[in-house]
Write a structure and sequence with these properties.
This protein is mainly alpha-helical. It contains 22 helices and no strands.
Length: 352
Amino acid sequence: MEETRLWGKNATAKQPNLYHEELATWTDADIRAALDESLHNRDFLLDTRGARRLVAGLLAEWVNRDWSAASQWFLTMPESIRSGDMALFLSFAWPPEHAAEGLAFVKANPEAFERSSAWSIAVKNIEARAQEGAASVVALLGELREARLGLSFEETVKFPKDFDFATLMRSPEVVEMLGKGQGEFFAGAWYAQDREAFYGWVMETGALRSLPEMVALGSDNPEKGLHWLGAKYQTLDAADRETLMLGSPVGHADIMGKMIEGITDPRVAEDLRASCAEWLFIGETAGALEVLGGIRDPAARLSALEEFDAEKAKRFSQMAPGDVSLFRTRLEQWGATPEQVDTLVKKFQPYL
């Protein structure tokens, strides 16, 4: 199940400060004095012995207590240091109730932030404006675009119940973002709130290739999300099924297995298993063989390999020697003749 958990959303925007409890007895003046001293500390300046992370913890604690004073001190740091991890920690620690002030600070000091380092502040502003409705979020997206703040992160964003995603997702701002590969977290949030309405939008807009990632971003329960994805796969025609699989993780047998569990038609399930033969072309041998091994009849497994159209392979990577040996062994276990084994190995690894 480890792979299934990895498929789920990546929640990092509100990272806890590891030093929060230790700093509970420190005054703001204590923190300021330690931060001032860090600017002359060799380990901090050279990023050695974990000093940079410790100073980031001090800054995060101060930002959470007094964002105004802490953000002004942040600007006194050497530019080469503040624009990396320190800017990220400032963004993580910024109080959500002061999200608007955080955005104003970022816009006023663009030189202090790389394009993506303020994304946590952007998330907090999206969540705050979502309370006002879709129009407010759309207006905010215009502000973020003008400030050149990238939104290409994979993150969980909270929206109020009954939020008008239909209006948001059809707005020119979001359409433009999705065209640039950004903003899929909006779709994930819609999936979490109303998956059938979300799916209707996916089919309407031709976003099937992005469906697996959107579901991953919105699914609190990865296993249920994969079951739902499998059920939808079953309803699609052949062309749409192929499009959907273009966006699915390659080589992860556990993820594919959970998706197949959502398919009720055995023929569709076995066809999907057979399609994973393509993984052999890119060296994902163990995963491919595990999925193919779920086809009930060993002879059908061999037929799936023999009938797979090599022209469908989109890329190629050579198998490791151990994987070639595993492939041969598994083919023999499935009843392949020596000639079949050689032919299939040559088919899926033509440059051996």
